[in-house]
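Study both lines:
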Amino acid sequence: MITPGDDYPLHQTSRTVRDPGHDRNLYDRFWFNGYPPDGSSYFSIAFGIYPGRNVMDGAIGIVVDPGTGRVQHNVRASRLLGDDRLDTQVGPIAVEILEPLRRLRVTVDDESGVRADLVFTSTADALEEPHYFWKVGHRTVFDYTRLTQFGTWSGWFEVPGHDRVLIDDGTWLGSRDRSWGIRSVGESEPPGAPDGGRPGFYWLWAPVQVDGTAYHFHVNEHPDGSRWHEGAVALPTDGRGGSIHGSLAYEMDFEPGTRHARSFSADLDLPTGPVHLDLQPVYPFMMSGIGYMHPEWGHGTWHGPLARAYETYAIDGADESQYLHQHVQTIVRVTRGDGAEGIGILEQLILGPHDPSGLTGILDMHP
């Protein structure tokens, strides 16, 4: 079927843009985050298109601290994708590309009282991460490309019970990514016959900024600790220099009773010299709030022609041993080896055994 997207020179196969091919788990996703220099508030946004499932969905989660405990406000929306993949609005949430790889806008106008008008402006070139390809036995689970980009925010947001928060460009920092390809989305599928090996998933992903320099490192490991994906890069955030790629070593001390970091350090071995970063967690953002691993609102699940939902999470004192809270983006204060300070996130998801961490079961907690 010919659709408006076919008028753009974007085809990478012989099919029309609307044709997902043979894999119903094809996806195409936007993701954003933003935070002030002190990390007192945080927002994260996910927006996905799933052509093989004929679904589009989006979500925003905003953490505010009223002085009596942090609360995460979550709005999720889903609709029938239809034929126009250039129509990037789902219910109260919309993403607009103002300048490709430079400026993007996110707007929210939800009946719950969660509203936003936010513009992301890049401060550095987009980074293409090494291609993600992961097989579990004979089944391909990941086969996708991701770009990551650092920037600043302008605009405003508001949540129920709070005054509007105004954001000056250059004050709030953040990052975004775009990823597309194949990964598990939609309703769970039968696993099929046993295929050998120990099941497990280990994910660390960290975009941080320190004194005019962005650092981004990420690693995926098998249960025995061997890596199937990794990357480490530094680049200036004034747009006047290229990225520098190297390798990563890290150490993580677990918060007892969780699978999340109490402290974390990273050593980046770069051609320009080694860089040591200490990451001190402040509080977690629960990724289930924007659909990741959510039992009802998982990405690409069908909720009818148009649906929306709103809920809140109490962040302070949350039970981080719950399955719903395993996938987190933890706001971290960052100290570089030379004493310079910054801020960013450490995204963590560990399911199943991981020998270097002393985890042996599917969801046992660190002692």
Summary: The CA atoms of residues 124 and 240 lie 8 Å apart. The chain has a mean pLDDT of 93. The chain has one domain: 25-189+197-357. The domain at 25-189+197-357 is CATH 2.40.370.10 (AttH-like fold).
